Amino acid sequence: MERDVLKVHHLSNSRSQRILWLVEELGVPYELVKHMRDPVTVRSPPSLFKIHPLGKGPTIEHDGKALTESGAIIDYVTRRVAGGKLSVPESSPEFADYCFWLHYAEGSASSSTQVMVMSASDKPLSSRNSCFESTSER
Ligand SMILES: N[C@@H](CCC(=O)N[C@@H](CS)C(=O)NCC(=O)O)C(=O)O
Q1: 11 CB under 6 A from ligand 1?
Q2: Global confidence as pTM
Q3: Distance from the CA of 61 to the center of ligand 1, in angstroms?
Q4: CA-only gyration radius of the chain, Å
Q5: What ligand 1 atom has the least distance to the C-alpha of 54?
Q6: Which whole-number Å values give the CA distances from 29 to 6, 32, 88, 112, in the listed order?
Q7: pLDDT at 131 over 70
Q8: CA 58 to ligand 1: nearest atom
Q9: Spans of all domains in the chain
Q10: Where are the beta strands (DSSP E) in 12-112?
Q11: 20-34, 68-82, 123-137: which range is least confident on average?
């Protein structure tokens, strides 16, 4: 069965940069769709909500399905699109560590990191361009 080309929905100044990095490292063919944050609210534009009801970056589309959440996207793309490249098979002794790091990033690590990032700037949240702006100022 012929499969769709992977479509990567990239939101400006966001975590979806990591998925672009991933697909470049994997060397898989993909189509890039760019979405710009709303300049006033800094939220995702309506175009991203049309792809998935959460309207988050990153989101991908593949084989007629939209998938969001970076850990899930990394797992899906490495296994299903890249045939296991950069992934770890279940039979490997490193599989448990692989699962831990893949989910720790957006689980426990992300929430505490965001608190630090958000409190590291004197600018009010409403005047920042992205969740990364406070780190790039320093
Ligand atoms: N845990 C999610 C977080 C997704 C997320 O919050 N993305 C942010 C960008 S870093 C976003 O879409 N913000 C725009 C909005 O929520 O309107 C993931 O890892 O994909």
Answers
A1: yes
A2: 0.87
A3: 16
A4: 16
A5: 16
A6: 7, 10, 21, 35
A7: no
A8: 20
A9: 6-81, 95-136
A10: 30-35, 59-62, 65-68
A11: 123-137
